[in-house]
């Protein structure tokens, strides 16, 4: 339950890429098979370690995208210009290749089916990944806990999981979604391209009065400003959890 | 824990240039300038900037930004080596030699502690700051030194690992007895010579 | 443009777990400098290799410093007055 402590040595697993799925022009989901994977909570991440033939290694963190399901782990990676690890994961690694991962880690930025309060999710760019794990975990458990997702992306083409999000919203199980497009909108979209601001929040987010649990994830700059906006709008800072992905490359 | 044999990621080379240059052991070549900081980037207005040299007897000599910039400066072309295993060749800096700043200081001290805005510290033998081996740099690649790289000014001691080249430098204190700095007190080598791969205590 | 590249304490979960063998990101920590109490996950992580610095999100004072060399790990927890772990 809440606050499960993870005991025991943290090992590196050798996962095998089962499938690579292009989500957008720049984002790809890797489906991994991880023998003896212990399972995970929605919101947790893994550390990925790449090793070149001469021994050079690079380690990065990636959120887990799927609901726990046996030995299956899905990661969704957005490629960054000149990104050392993301480019490899999006463009090079192929089904059948090994991938070293360590995890699952992070017992704080998690959502569990036992949590009953309404949930406000705020994603910037690839920050959707751990929030998608929460959406999928909720659906897999057959729950209708109110979930509201605010998703900031550059253009409609940059929406990761677009079709699945649309399907899950239309199922009418208590998941609602509002997009903020920062560069280009769909034709006829009421709001011109802009970042998430106070006006958008008050219109699109669950009211502060409902005291939702808030999860914000994305590039560091995006998370900084979204968290500040929520606090200013009266959301309880203690109920705002953040996951910063690192320096902003303007992904949101 | 590394699996045995280590798992190689097929097709992964990393962002490195295949270099023929000789690098210190365990180092890899990079063309970017990765940003590594032990803390937040301080905002320092040039009007408020001060550099203080404190001798072992407690005498303090300070320079304002304009006084500091009025000192003779030199151009430095050097290789730099970070303990995170990247090296960058032929970087071009402009700075004031520590010889200039230490001129006329009757030093019986053998050690120095570099101190930064934000609280970072690192210790060095005073000899490593003398004889054209160390500078307070304020320009990198022809431009004012960017805050994330230590601007307005940083220490540059390129013959040692880069954690010795304190960013956002605000002073140097001379010491008769050695004391460990921020990282040196926690496992990092007291001297940090990349050519002898002195990364940790006892290396 | 000076963008600090810190991430949340939560992002260091893997590194911390490999050092402590229990997940301390969920634990409450008190800052020895300002007294603030918050989960380790809410601290700010700077520098990653070979040394990690976790700083108080309120006053930026270092809470925990960890350096890892081959076969050795150094931990400086002077910045913490206490750590409250949830134990089963
Ligand atoms: C807990 C956690 C979970 C994460 N989950 C995911 C995830 O699910 N999907 C995902 O795609 N990424 C995720 N990230 C980010 C990921 O770890 C890497 O930082 C990212 O893939 C860049 O690595 P790289 O090696 O490709 O880029 P690097 O080679 O390290 O950097 C390339 C360039 O991009 C810049 N840059 C570095 N990181 C970012 C960033 N996050 N945003 C914008 N610019 C950046 C650098 O300054 C540099 O100029 C997560 C990060 C954390 C801390
Ligand atoms: Zn504090």
Annotate the secondary structure layout.
The complex is a heterotrimer of chains A (252), B (203) and C (88).
Chain A: E1 12-22, E2 27-33, E3 45-51, E4 57-63, E5 72-78, H1 84-92, E6 98-105, E7 119-124, H2 128-140, E8 147-153, H3 162-170, E9 175-181, H4 198-204, E10 213-218, H5 220-232, E11 240-244
Parallel strand pairs in A: 7-8, 7-10, 8-9, 10-11
Antiparallel strand pairs in A: 1-2, 1-6, 2-5, 3-4, 3-6
Chain B: E1 28-29, E2 50-54, E3 60-64, H1 65-69, E4 74-81, E5 86-97, H2 98-102, E6 111-116, E7 121-125, E8 135-140, E9 143-144, E10 154-156, E11 169-175
Parallel strand pairs in B: 1-5, 2-11
Antiparallel strand pairs in B: 2-3, 4-5, 5-8, 6-7, 6-11, 8-9, 8-10
Chain C: E1 7-8, H1 13-20, E2 28-31, E3 37-39, E4 44-46, E5 51-55, E6 62-69, E7 72-76, E8 80-84
Antiparallel strand pairs in C: 1-4, 2-3, 2-8, 4-5, 5-6, 6-7
The site of zinc ion has 8 residues of chain C, from loops.
Task: Please give a structural write-up.
The complex is a heterotrimer of chains A (252), B (203) and C (88). Chain A has 252 residues and is α/β, with parallel strands linked by helices. Chain A folds into 2 domains: 4-105, Elongation Factor Tu (Ef-tu), domain 3; 119-245, Nucleotide-binding domain of ferredoxin-NADP reductase (FNR) module (Rossmann fold). Chain A is 20% helix and 31% strand. The longest helix of chain A has 13 residues, at 128-140. The two termini of chain A are 33 Å apart. Chain B has one domain (48-196): Oxidoreductase, molybdopterin-binding domain (Sulfite Oxidase, Chain A, domain 2). With 203 residues, chain B is mainly beta. The mean pLDDT of chain B is 93. In chain B, 5% of the residues lie in helices and 30% in strands. Chain C has 88 residues and is mostly beta strands. In chain C, the strands form 2 sheets. In chain C, strands 1-4-5-6-7 form a 5-stranded antiparallel β-sheet, with no helix packed on it. In chain C, 49% of the residues are buried. The A-B interface holds A 9, 11-12, 14, 50-53, 55-56, 58, 82, 84, 88, 92-94, 97-100 and B 1-3, 6-16, 28, 32, 85. The complex binds flavin-adenine dinucleotide and zinc ion (ZN). Zinc ion binds next to loops of chain C.
């Amino acid at each position: 339950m809440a606050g499960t402590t993870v005991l025991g040595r943290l090992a590196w697993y050798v996962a095998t890429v089962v499938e690579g799925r292009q989500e957008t022009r720049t984002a790809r989901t890797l489906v991994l098979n991880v023998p003896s994977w212990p399972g995970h909570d929605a919101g947790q991440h893994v550390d990925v370690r790449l090793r070149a033939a001469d021994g050079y290694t690079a380690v990065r963190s990636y959120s887990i995208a799927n609901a726990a399901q046996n030995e299956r782990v899905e990661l969704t990676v957005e490629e960054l210009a000149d990104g050392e690890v993301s480019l490899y994961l999006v463009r090079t690694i192929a089904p059948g290749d090994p991938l070293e991962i360590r995890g699952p880690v992070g017992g704080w930025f998690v959502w569990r089916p036992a949590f009953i309060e309404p949930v406000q999710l705020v994603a910037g760019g690839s920050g959707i990944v751990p929030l998608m794990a929460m959406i999928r975990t909720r659906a897999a458990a057959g729950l209708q806990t109110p979930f509201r997702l605010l998703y900031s992306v550059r253009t409609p083409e940059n929406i990761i999981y677009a079709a699945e999000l649309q399907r899950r919203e239309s199922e009418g199980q208590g998941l609602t979604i509002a997009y903020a497009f920062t560069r280009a909108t769909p034709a006829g979209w009421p709001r011109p391209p802009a970042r998430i601001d106070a006006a958008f929040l008050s219109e699109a987010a669950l009211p502060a009065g409902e005291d939702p649990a808030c999860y914000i994830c994305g590039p560091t700059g995006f998370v900084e400003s979204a968290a500040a906006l929520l606090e200013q709008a009266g959301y309880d800072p203690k109920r705002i959890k953040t996951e910063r992905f690192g320096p902003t490359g303007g992904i949101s | 824990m590394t699996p045995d044999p280590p798992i190689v990621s097929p097709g992964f080379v990393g962002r490195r240039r295949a270099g023929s240059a000789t690098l210190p052991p365990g180092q890899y070549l990079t063309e970017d300038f990765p940003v590594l900081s032990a803390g937040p980037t301080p905002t320092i207005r040039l009007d408020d900037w001060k550099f203080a040299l404190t001798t072992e007897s407690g005498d303090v000599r300070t320079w304002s930004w304009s006084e500091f910039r009025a000192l003779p400066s030199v151009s430095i072309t050097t290789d730099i080596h970070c303990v995170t295993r990247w090296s960058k060749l032929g970087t071009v800096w402009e700075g004031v030699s520590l010889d200039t700043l230490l001129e006329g200081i009757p030093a019986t001290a053998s050690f120095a502690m570099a101190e930064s805005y934000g609280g970072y510290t690192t210790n060095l033998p005073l000899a490593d700051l003398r004889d054209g081996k160390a500078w307070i740099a304020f320009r990198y690649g022809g431009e004012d030194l960017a805050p994330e790289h230590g601007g307005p000014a940083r220490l540059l001691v390129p013959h040692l690992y880069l954690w010795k080249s304190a960013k956002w430098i605000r002073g140097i204190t001379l010491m008769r007895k050695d004391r460990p700095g921020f990282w040196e007190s926690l496992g990092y080598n007291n001297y940090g010579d990349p050519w002898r791969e002195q990364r940790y205590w006892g290396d | 443009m000076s963008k600090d590249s810190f991430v949340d304490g939560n992002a260091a979960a893997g590194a911390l777990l490999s050092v402590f063998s229990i997940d301390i990101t969920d634990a409450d920590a008190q800052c020895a400098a300002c007294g603030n109490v918050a989960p380790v996950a809410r601290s700010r992580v700077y520098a990653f290799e070979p040394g990690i610095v976790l700083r108080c999100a309120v006053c930026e004072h270092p809470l925990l410093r960890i350096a890892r060399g081959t076969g050795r790990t150094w931990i400086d927890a002077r910045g913490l007055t206490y750590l409250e772990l949830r134990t089963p």
